[in-house]
Design a protein that fits this description.
The protein is mostly helical. 85% of the residues lie in helices and 0% in strands. α1 runs parallel beside α6, α2 runs antiparallel to α3 and α4 runs antiparallel to α5.
């Protein structure tokens, strides 16, 4: 589940960053439109994450249980394995779907704050991009810690991907 959280969280963060940068390089855009678009994307990523993870995880778990039952030449309907076939796909799906949704919500917080009248030391779009870059860096740090790699290097690698993405969007804008 950790893998699902990081992969889909990273997708959510990079998607939000891309959307915000796209709005940043565009002509005048209403902040409410940016917020609605980012929220819609975060919700879509969340729904996609839940449904795709559930479908694939449930299929894999059912396949594994069937192979185990065949090898044991008995039904495992009342076993822990059978209960895992039911519950684990839901748990994985929730993690997979909530990661991009929650990370997306964190990233667009500066947009909401400015929309609510809070004054930030910079514009809402640059502030949201900084939150996205920090989030992506922290996801890389987390992966570095999990893998035993140097945390700073792992965080910087993730950040480079995000910066390249920003650069490409800037070029097409």
């Amino acid at each position: 589940m950790r893998r699902y959280f990081v992969v889909n969280g990273y997708d959510g963060a990079l998607t939000m960053l891309g959307l915000i940068m796209g709005f940043y390089v565009s002509d005048q855009v209403e902040l409410a439109v940016v917020i609605t678009t980012c929220l819609a994307a975060a919700l879509a990523l969340g729904m996609s994450g839940v449904s795709s993870a559930y479908i694939s995880e449930a299929a894999e778990r059912r396949r594994t249980l069937a192979k185990l039952e065949k090898a044991m030449v008995s039904s495992l309907d009342e076993s822990h394995h059978a209960r895992a076939v039911v519950w684990i796909p839901w748990l994985v799906a929730l993690v997979n779907g909530l990661a991009p949704l929650l990370i997306g919500l964190v990233i667009i917080t500066p947009l909401w704050l400015v929309h609510a009248g809070v004054v930030l030391p910079m514009g809402p779009l640059p502030a949201a991009m900084i939150v996205a870059l920090l989030t992506i860096f922290l996801l890389g740090v987390f992966l570095g810690r999990v893998s035993g790699a140097f945390w700073l290097w792992s965080g910087l690698q993730s950040l480079v991907v995000a910066l390249v993405t920003l650069g490409l969007i800037y070029l097409i804008g």
